[in-house]
Each structure stands twice: as structure tokens, then as C-alpha cells.
């Protein structure tokens, strides 16, 4: 049986080896050209990472592929190829909410590829400070969750900071209950980020109603605590379980099986047009009847679709709000540019957070 199996597999494996040899030669040719691109960029002081260009490359290849590789496969493969090429041009660093093993770290690797140099930070504030101070070229921060809504601290910092949004990623969130033993024996406390605890409320109420719940700075921090204390269970990812040597006592405990968190990539350079973009902005209006309708009218008049509308108290005055809005298109698209110009005339305050390739 083994001889017959091997005789049938050998010619197929030989063909794969031949193709692999061709691929490695072509990848090295590609990398050499990427180095030449890097020299040109360096001469003109152009940024190494251009999200719109990478999105255009991936979209073109997805269109070209006739299968069996699907679009997601093409995206995953080419992100790593382009990340490796980028690292040859110049090391790229991204700050994220740490420690290692967080969903923010997972989002960073999925967006930038594994050749990125990650810089774990203790808070979202520190992520912003690291990029503003030049310690990292980019930052990765959560902005909203499909179950719990907006991440308030990120919205506040986007208002205050001069950094721009250059990209986004919607990451499926899979919460597991992790312990040292893989059981709940001896567990007296469940630790996680406050958002994760909220996203697992029904499961915790049903299966662990009398166990203390403690909010900590991140799910990875909870996993680190559980690795040191057998009485602690952590809500965290598969990556955190592996990193901290924990066992999965119960998998997928989030209340919403389709739970997702949207992350945005922040930096100093604006992203160009990719052909499939969105623009994020913050506006406020005077406290008067019909103010919000007047604010949104220019978008409808110029045919610009709004995909997100979130309000936050302005914390100045009485009953005044900032509105966080996402619209389809790039700020350089004629219709979007006209709508924003008209909007600016009607708004008491307008800040464009960035135009960037849309992940949806």
C-alpha cells in the first residue's frame, strides 16, 4: 500500500518541487526590483508603505486568478510577499495594544504581514504617542466592535491627534476561556478586557454566575495573569493561549458568533486613491433645529453614501456632540471633494481623519 501510494505521489511532488524552484527564483527577482523601488523612494523621500498601491496589486491578482486559489488566499499570500519586500527596503515598525497575544497584534500581522516589527504598548494612548513621537511609523488601534459598538478612547484620541487613518481591517473575534489545566477546577476569577467581558456576558452568566469578573488592560494581560495563577481564567485568543502556555477550557464563548472588531491603522502620511476607498471625518454643528439634517444634506446632494454615523458628547457646552462619519470614496474623488467643501460651510467644526482603502 505504501509503495503504491508513494509511486503515485512522487511525480506530483516532483512537479511541485520544480514549480517551487521557479517560484523562489521569481520571488527573488521581484525582491531585487523592490530594492530598486526602495532606492527611488529614498531619493524622493517617499514612504515605504503605500496601502493603496498594495491594495491595487492584490485586487488585480484576485481578478487574474482562475482558481483554485480564492481571493482570500491571494490576499494572504501577497501581503506576506509584499511585507518581506518592504522589510528589505527598510524596517517598518507598528505600535499596538499589547502585550503579545492581543487581537491588536493579530490585526497588525494580518494587515502588514509578519515581516513588520511590532511594538507592544500598555494603552491606546501610548500607541498614539509612539507614532506621534516617531517611535513607530504606524499604530494599530481598535475603533469599533460589532457587539459593543465604538471604542470610546480611540474616538477621543482621533479627535485630539494629528495622525491620519491610512487603512482598516475587520478581524473576526474568537474568545476562548483559558486556564492552566484546561478545566474550571479551582477557578475563582475571570479576567479580560472590559469589552471582552461584555461580549461574553450571557455565557459567563450561564456557566460561571458566581465567579468574580475582573477587567484588565487587555486580554493578553489576562492570559499572562492566568499563566501565573491557577485560580485565574482568562478570556483571550488562540494566539494568547499558545503564547502563554494555557489550555482552552471552553472555546468560542462570545455571545455573538459573528463578533468582529474593526481596527484602523494610524500614521503621518495620507493614503492615495486605490479605487475602493472610504473617508472618515468628525463634524459638529450648532445646537439649533434641523442642524443634523442640514449637515448631512450635502452628502445626499452629491451622491456620497454614508456607511457609519457615530455621535460623541463634545464635553464643552450643553448637549453638544461630535459626529464621527464614514463615507464611501476618497477625499480626492470629485463627488466626495464637492460634498466635503459644502459640508465645511455648514459645519461648526470639520476634521478629515483620512481617506484609505476600504476593507469591506
From TrEMBL:
PROSITE patterns found in the cross-reference section: ACT (PS51671), CHORISMATE_MUT_2 (PS51168), PREPHENATE_DEHYDR_2 (PS00858), PREPHENATE_DEHYDR_3 (PS51171)
Catalytic activity: chorismate = prephenate; prephenate + H(+) = 3-phenylpyruvate + CO2 + H2O
Domain ACT: residue ranges: 280-357
Main location: cytoplasm
Pathway(s) this gene product operates in, as recorded in its UniProt entry: Metabolic intermediate biosynthesis; prephenate biosynthesis; prephenate from chorismate: step 1/1; Amino-acid biosynthesis; L-phenylalanine biosynthesis; phenylpyruvate from prephenate: step 1/1
GO biological process: chorismate metabolic process; L-phenylalanine biosynthetic process
Role played: Catalyzes the Claisen rearrangement of chorismate to prephenate and the decarboxylation/dehydration of prephenate to phenylpyruvate.
Protein name: Bifunctional chorismate mutase/prephenate dehydratase
Gene source species: Trinickia dinghuensis
Taxonomic path: Bacteria, Pseudomonadati, Pseudomonadota, Betaproteobacteria, Burkholderiales
Amino acid at each position: 500500500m505504501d509503495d503504491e501510494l508513494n509511486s503515485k505521489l512522487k511525480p506530483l511532488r516532483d512537479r511541485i518541487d520544480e514549480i517551487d524552484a521557479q517560484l523562489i527564483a521569481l520571488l527573488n527577482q521581484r525582491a531585487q526590483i523592490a530594492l530598486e523601488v526602495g532606492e527611488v523612494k529614498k531619493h524622493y523621500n517617499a514612504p515605504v508603505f503605500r496601502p493603496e498601491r498594495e491594495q491595487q496589486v492584490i485586487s488585480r491578482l484576485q481578478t487574474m486568478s482562475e482558481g483554485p486559489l480564492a481571493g482570500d488566499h491571494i490576499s494572504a499570500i501577497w501581503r506576506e510577499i509584499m511585507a518581506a519586500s518592504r522589510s528589505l527596503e527598510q524596517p517598518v515598525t507598528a505600535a499596538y495594544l499589547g502585550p503579545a497575544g492581543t487581537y491588536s497584534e493579530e490585526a497588525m500581522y494580518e494587515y502588514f504581514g509578519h515581516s513588520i516589527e511590532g511594538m507592544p504598548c500598555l494603552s491606546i494612548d501610548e500607541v498614539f504617542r509612539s507614532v506621534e513621537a516617531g517611535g513607530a511609523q504606524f499604530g494599530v488601534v481598535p475603533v469599533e466592535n460589532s457587539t459593543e459598538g465604538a471604542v470610546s478612547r480611540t474616538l477621543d484620541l482621533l479627535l485630539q491627534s494629528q495622525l491620519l487613518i491610512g487603512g482598516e481591517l475587520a478581524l473576526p473575534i474568537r474568545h476562548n476561556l483559558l486556564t492552566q489545566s484546561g478545566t474550571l477546577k479551582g477557578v475563582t476569577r475571570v479576567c479580560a478586557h472590559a469589552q471582552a467581558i461584555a461580549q461574553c456576558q450571557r455565557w459567563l452568566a450561564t456557566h460561571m454566575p458566581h465567579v468574580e469578573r475582573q477587567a484588565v488592560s487587555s486580554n493578553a494581560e489576562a492570559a499572562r495573569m492566568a499563566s501565573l495563577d491557577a485560580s485565574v481564567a482568562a478570556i483571550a485568543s488562540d494566539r494568547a493561549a499558545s503564547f502563554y502556555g494555557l489550555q482552552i477550557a471552553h472555546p468560542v464563548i462570545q455571545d455573538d458568533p459573528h463578533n468582529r472588531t474593526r481596527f484602523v491603522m494610524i500614521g503621518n502620511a495620507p493614503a492615495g486613491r486605490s479605487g475602493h476607498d472610504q473617508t472618515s471625518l468628525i463634524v459638529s454643528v450648532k445646537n439649533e433645529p434641523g442642524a443634523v439634517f442640514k449637515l448631512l444634506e450635502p452628502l445626499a446632494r452629491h451622491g456620497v453614501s454614508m456607511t457609519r454615523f457615530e455621535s460623541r458628547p463634545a464635553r464643552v457646552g450643553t448637549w453638544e456632540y461630535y459626529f464621527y462619519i464614514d463615507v464611501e470614496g476618497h477625499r480626492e474623488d470629485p463627488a466626495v471633494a464637492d460634498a466635503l467643501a459644502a459640508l465645511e460651510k455648514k459645519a461648526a467644526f470639520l476634521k478629515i481623519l483620512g481617506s484609505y482603502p476600504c476593507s469591506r
